[in-house]
Amino acid sequence: MNPKRLVCLCNFVSEEEIIKVLRSGALTTAEVQKFTQAGTGCTRCVREIDAIVAKHLETNKKDPQLRIGFEFKDP
Ligand code: FES
């Protein structure tokens, strides 16, 4: 899979950018959406974002990421 592939075509957000936000501490699709704007247009990509979030959380279950340094701000 190409990490630079665009997941959200409306807002030009790649899988790589979504993973970066997840590695920074985001835990939900809503957090990914607010931080990257992915899935906030036509919403067609939201299911794919859900899948990326679920896969990331499953992969990192044994090594839970601390949310230190992740400051979530509403726009
Ligand atoms: S493709 Fe992501 S909001 Fe439209």
Description:
This protein is mostly helical. It has one domain: Arc Repressor Mutant, subunit A (Orthogonal Bundle). The chain is about 40% helix and about 5% strand. It has helices at about 15-25, 30-35, 45-60, and strands at about 5-10, 15. Strands 1-2 form a two-stranded antiparallel ribbon. It is globular, with a radius of gyration of 12 Å. Bound molecules: FE2/S2 (inorganic) cluster. FE2/S2 (inorganic) cluster (FES) binds near residues 38, 39, 40 and 45.
**Corresponding CATH architecture:** Orthogonal Bundle
Number of helices: 3
Q: How big a fraction of the residues is strand?
A: 5-15%
Report the C-alpha radius of gyration, rounded: 12 Å
CATH superfamily, by name, is BFD-like [2Fe-2S]-binding domain
Give the topology.
Blueprint: E1 6-8, E2 13-14, H1 15-23, H2 29-36, H3 46-59
Antiparallel strand pairs: 1-2
Helix pairs in contact: 1-3
Bound molecules: FE2/S2 (inorganic) cluster.
Quick rundown:
This protein has 75 residues and is mainly alpha-helical.
Sum up the structure in keywords.
41% helix, 3 helices, 7% strand, globular, binds FE2/S2 (inorganic) cluster, 75 residues, Arc Repressor Mutant, subunit A, mainly alpha
